[in-house]
Amino acid sequence: MKKQLLLAVTAAALIGVSGSSYALFGSSSSKTTAAQPMRIGVVDYLKVFQNVPQGQATLNKLKASLKPSVLKLKSSQQALSADIKKLEKNGPTLSKAQRADQEKALNKKQQAFHQQVSALRTKEMGKQQAAAKVFESDLKKAVAEVAQKQHFDMLITKQAVPYVNSKFNVTQAVIDDMKKMGS
User: Fold this and answer.
1) CA 108 to CA 104: how far, in whole Å?
2) Considering Cα of 16, then 17, then 18, then 21, what sign does the dihedral take?
3) What is the DSSP letter of 52?
4) Which DSSP symbol is given to 40?
5) Quick one: 2-182 is in which CATH superfamily?
6) Cα distances (Å, whole numbers) of residue 24 to 30, 82, 86, 157, 175
7) CA-based radius of gyration for the chain
8) Which helix (H) or strand (E) holds 157?
9) Domain ranges of the chain
10) Tell me, what's the pLDDT at 33?
11) Is the N or the C terminus of the chain less surrounded, counting Cβ atoms within 10 Å?
12) Is it the case that residue 74 has pLDDT exceeding 80?
């Protein structure tokens, strides 16, 4: 689940890079001239997510909201397993018609179970996307604040570039800023 949420955060970051907001933050002042080089920094969204309280809180909230559904599925799975064992045990003593009826009923239960699993996955994905949006909002605020404080013209996500020199990495500053927001 944590890996999936991290992927959702990364996807949100990449969508921000290609979308209208560009997930790029810089000063809008005209301080950058031909004589002054452009200041570009890089932020690792995944590292931020893993190192701020908001990331863990997001995961905990997601797990808590899905826990009742997961427990219900586990119970359904155990009941289904018990029915399968019962059919295997009693199968030889049943008539062909009785066995066929029980197998048909068991197949219906299995199909219902698979539908429940599919519904839970869909629900989980929706909640992950909603959680990623909330997290992304805080992340963008922190990124913008770091960009302004440190006078960057542009900050991009590490996920958007294949290589970056560590001197351009401002991830720790964003982590520190988000930790302040979370307290």
Assistant:
1) 6
2) positive
3) S
4) E
5) Skp domain (3.30.910.20)
6) 17, 55, 60, 8, 17
7) 25
8) strand 154-157
9) 2-182
10) 53
11) C
12) yes
